[in-house]
Design a protein that fits this description.
Blueprint lengths: L3 E5 L7 H5 L11 E3 L5 E7 L2 E9 L5 E6 L3 H6 L1 H4 L14 H9 L12 H9 L5 H15 L17 H6 L2 H6 L4 H12 L1 H4 L2 H4 L1 H8 L7 H11 L13 H9 L6 H8 L6 H10 L20
Antiparallel strand pairs: 1-5, 2-3, 3-4, 4-5
Organism: Prauserella oleivorans
Keywords: DNA damage, DNA repair
InterPro entries: Alkylbase_DNA_Glycosylase/TA (IPR051912), DNA_glycosylase (IPR011257)
Length: about 300
């Protein structure tokens, strides 16, 4: 299999681990891994086919990348955007001390973008209204059973996310084995039938791109925001409706948990960089206070 190579010298200091953190779906993510040599491997579907990309950060600041598969050139072309080269934080103002401190402590924080919708939409739908543990388990199972092996010399067990055709091929009992309930499988199947059209959301960007995603039954404000954050690095797409974010932002900025209305009010001064403010708080380590009942982990495979 032919290997393609690119060396990119960014005009800024890149924090590869930090910029790619939102793309990783748990430690066992079969589509994004770091090996024992510190190389970062990731896979993806493109209009030309599946591909694998590996990144190495050199001491002179350059990023060297190799890619394999039919979509190798697409992943290499998207390298700068993936690592935050298109991110523009001009106009961002920290209106709270906690955000200002986070920004000072994280000068390398950037919002990366894959430029592709489908691969980030699937895990976002799987994360709807379930625990992270459940969602990551389903993601691993779907990738293992219905995603292609990663092209090239990728680490053992790496897979390409399932394609729209693969999602449409899954029968009920295999959804059941993957722990995916009826509402989420319906949303995935609905998205798969119009997957090509949904890719235009990454070109529209912003609120227009999110509105296009929400035309699919089962994709609401939260899911559209989760996709927008990763597909085009949307700095204003807050995941309203999230279980954790109102508590994280509320305790960090005003000292108590918020509901969605309160979250919108507190973040309003940050528009059009509301998600950037949230990302600073999350990356700085602010988290939901550890008290109260935890959401139970449900195993749909046993139902």
């Amino acid at each position: 299999m032919p290997e393609l190579y690119r060396r990119w010298q960014p005009g800024f200091v890149v924090d590869i681990g930090g910029v790619l953190a939102p793309f990783r779906r748990g430690r066992g993510d079969p589509c994004l891994r770091q090996d024992e040599l510190g190389r970062v491997w990731l896979t993806g579907n493109t209009a030309l086919g599946p591909a694998t990309l590996v990144l190495v950060h050199r001491t002179d600041g350059a990023v060297e990348a190799k890619a394999w598969g039919d979509g190798a050139e697409v992943l290499l072309d998207g390298l700068p955007a993936l690592l935050g080269a298109d991110d523009d934080d001009s106009g961002f103002v920290a209106h709270h001390d906690a955000v200002a401190r986070a920004r000072r402590s994280l000068p390398l924080l950037r919002l990366g973008a894959t430029g592709r919708v489908w691969d980030v939409l699937v895990p976002a739908v799987l994360e709807q209204k379930v625990t992270g543990y459940e969602a990551r388990r389903s993601w691993r199972e779907l990738c293992r059973r219905f995603g292609e092996p990663a092209p090239g010399p990728a680490p053992a067990g790496m897979r390409v996310p399932p394609t729209p055709a693969a999602i449409l091929s899954i029968v009920d009992w295999n959804w059941h084995k993957a722990g995916v309930d009826l509402s989420r499988r319906r949303a995935l199947r609905a998205a798969a039938t119009v997957a090509d059209r949904l890719e235009r959301a990454a070109e529209l960007r912003g609120a227009e791109g999110r509105r296009l995603l929400r035309t699919v039954p089962g994709i609401g404000v939260w899911t559209a925001a989760e996709v927008a954050q990763r597909a085009w690095g949307d700095p204003d797409a807050v995941s309203f409706g999230d279980f954790h974010i109102p508590a994280v932002v509320g305790h960090a900025l005003v000292g108590h948990e918020l509901d969605d209305a309160g979250l919108q009010e507190v973040l309003a001064p940050y528009a059009p960089h509301r998600q950037r403010a949230v990302r600073y708080l999350e990356a700085a380590g602010f988290s939901r206070p550890r008290f109260g009942p935890r959401h139970p982990v449900r195993d749909y495979r046993a139902i």
